[in-house]
Design goal:
By secondary structure, the protein is α+β, with helices and mostly antiparallel strands. It has one domain. The strands form 2 sheets. Strands 1-4-5 form a 3-stranded mixed beta sheet, with helices on both faces. Helix 2 crosses helix 3. The two termini are 23 Å apart.
Length: 111
């Protein structure tokens, strides 16, 4: 798989950041595979996620990218806003947003 030039891979399903631990090598998982294949950055989840909350988070995330926020900044802003209840209390609990982690190049995307 050649992902050279791919700015961002988003895996918004459950447990996409989980991998197999190998002594002396680290964790083998999808994130590592995408890095090796050439992806500049990855957004993955560490545990089971709520479908509706994930949809809402992804819509907000892509809007942040469209608004020229950095790839990491767009996610962090949503997570802070939800924690602080800026969009109501519906998704205030970390269960709804803390599963998602970003790695890689955090600069704004080129469209």
């Amino acid at each position: 798989m050649n992902l050279v030039g791919t700015q961002l891979v988003v895996l918004s399903a459950c447990d996409t950041g989980i991998g197999e631990i190998s002594a002396g090598e680290g964790i083998y998982g999808l994130r590592r595979a995408f890095v090796i294949a050439g992806s500049e950055s990855q957004l993955i989840s560490l545990w089971k996620v709520d479908d509706t909350a994930t949809k809402d988070l992804m819509v907000a995330y892509y809007q942040g990218l469209k608004d020229r926020k950095g790839r990491r900044e767009a996610l962090s802003q949503i997570q802070r806003d939800w924690l602080e209840g800026k969009n109501g209390k519906k998704y205030q609990h970390p269960y709804y947003w803390a599963s998602f982690i970003f790695s890689g190049d955090s600069t704004p995307m080129e469209f």
